[in-house]
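Input C-alpha cells:
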C-alpha cells in the first residue's frame, strides 16, 4: 500500500502543501491517542466554559483544539488558523502561505458513549496583502479550498482527504505511524435507498423537506416506489463517511426550533470541507438554494443548511423546493 507523501506527489500537490498536510496529520495522530486514553486520563467530562457559539465545551474539545492549533502555529506553514473552539482567527507566521479552518472534534456528544468522533479541516491559500491577525482573510468561498479532509477516530483511525484530484481513503498504520492509501478516487453511488437526518426536528422543518422525508418514509407504497433505510450517527464525520462509502443522502435542513439559529452546521469547518470531499467523489453538496462551495462567507462561524450525497437523491430532494 502506498504511503501518503508519494500518493500526494502523484497528484502533483506542491511540496509546501504536503508539509502542511503532514503537520496536520501529526496532530491527528496525537488526538487519536488522546481520544483512546480519555477515560483513563479523566478527560470524559465537560468544561465550565462555552465556545463563542454558546455550546458547552467538552474537555476533549479543548485538548484537541489546543493540540491542533499549537502544532499548526509552530509549523510556520500557516498565516492564521480558525477553529470551532476559538472566538476569532489566531495569527501565525505572517509569511505563511496557507489558512487552516478546523473542527477539532466533530461529534462531541458521542465522546461519553465511546462512539464515533473525528477532526475536520479545510485549507485555503492565504491572501498576501492582508495582516495575519485579520479574520477577513478567511472570507473565501469553498471552491477556493486547496485541500480538505477529516480523520475518523473509529475502530480504525482513518483519513479521508482531497487536494482537488479525487477523494482518497487512508488508514493509520500504527506499526510505523503513517497513513497508508487504501482507496483511491472513491465514488459516491448516484442512487441510494438510505437517508440521514435528525428526525426529532421534523416538526420544525420547512414544508419542502417535510414533504420529501414523508415520501421517503412511505417507501414502496408512496411516490418514490422503493423502501428507504435511515441512519443517524450524530457526528457529521460518521454520516458523511457512510455516504462516501456506500451512498445516501445526508441533510441538516433549516428549522425554526430556535428562530435565532435556523441552521446547525458551520460553513467554514464542516460544510465546506465535506462539500469538497463529496463533490470530488462525484456527489452533490448544496443548500436548498445552491452550491455550498459558492457561498461567500460573511463570518468564520457562519452556519448553513446542508443537503449532500448521491447525485440523483439530492436532486430528488431539491425538486421539492421548486
Ligand atoms: P460538533 O460536535 O463539532 O459540535 O458537531 C456536531 C454536529 C455534527 O457533527 C452532527 O451532524 C450534528 O451536530 C448532530 O446534531 P444533532 O445533535 O441534532 O444530532
Ligand atoms: Mn462539528
Ligand atoms: Mn466540534
Amino acid at each position: 500500500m502506498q504511503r501518503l507523501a508519494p500518493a500526494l506527489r502523484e497528484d502533483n500537490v506542491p511540496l509546501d502543501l504536503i508539509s502542511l498536510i503532514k503537520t496536520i496529520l501529526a496532530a491527528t495522530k496525537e488526538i487519536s491517542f488522546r481520544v483512546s486514553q480519555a477515560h483513563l486520563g479523566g478527560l470524559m467530562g465537560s468544561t465550565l466554559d462555552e465556545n463563542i457559539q454558546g455550546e458547552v465545551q467538552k474537555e476533549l474539545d479543548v485538548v484537541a483544539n489546543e493540540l491542533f492549533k499549537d502544532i499548526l502555529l509552530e509549523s510556520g506553514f500557516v498565516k492564521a488558523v480558525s477553529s470551532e473552539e476559538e472566538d476569532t482567527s489566531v495569527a501565525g507566521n505572517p509569511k505563511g502561505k496557507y489558512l487552516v479552518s478546523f473542527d477539532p472534534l466533530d461529534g462531541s456528544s458521542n465522546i461519553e458513549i465511546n462512539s464515533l468522533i473525528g477532526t475536520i479541516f479545510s485549507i485555503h491559500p492565504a491572501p498576501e496583502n492582508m495582516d495575519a491577525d485579520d479574520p477577513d482573510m478567511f472570507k473565501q468561498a469553498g471552491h477556493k479550498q486547496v485541500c480538505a479532509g477529516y480523520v475518523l477516530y473509529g475502530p480504525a483511525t482513518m483519513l479521508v482527504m482531497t487536494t482537488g484530484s479525487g477523494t482518497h481513503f487512508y488508514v493509520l498504520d500504527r506499526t510505523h505511524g503513517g497513513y497508508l492509501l487504501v482507496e483511491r478516487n472513491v465514488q459516491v453511488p448516484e442512487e441510494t435507498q438510505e437517508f440521514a437526518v435528525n428526525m426529532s426536528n421534523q416538526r420544525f422543518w420547512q414544508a419542502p423537506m417535510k414533504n420529501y422525508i414523508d415520501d421517503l418514509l412511505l417507501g414502496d407504497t408512496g411516490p418514490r416506489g422503493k423502501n428507504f433505510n435511515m441512519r443517524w450517527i450524530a457526528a457529521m464525520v460518521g454520516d458523511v463517511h457512510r455516504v462516501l462509502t456506500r451512498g445516501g443522502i445526508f441533510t441538516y435542513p433549516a428549522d425554526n426550533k430556535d428562530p435565532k439559529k435556523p441552521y446547525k452546521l458551520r460553513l467554514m469547518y464542516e460544510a465546506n470541507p465535506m462539500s469538497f470531499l463529496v463533490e470530488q467523489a462525484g456527489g452533490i453538496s448544496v443548500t436548498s438554494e445552491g452550491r455550498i462551495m459558492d457561498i461567500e462567507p460573511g463570518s468564520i462561524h457562519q452556519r448553513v443548511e446542508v443537503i449532500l450525497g448521491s447525485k440523483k437523491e439530492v436532486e430528488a430532494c431539491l425538486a421539492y423546493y421548486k
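The first strand starts at residue 46 and ends at 50. The radius of gyration is 19 Å.
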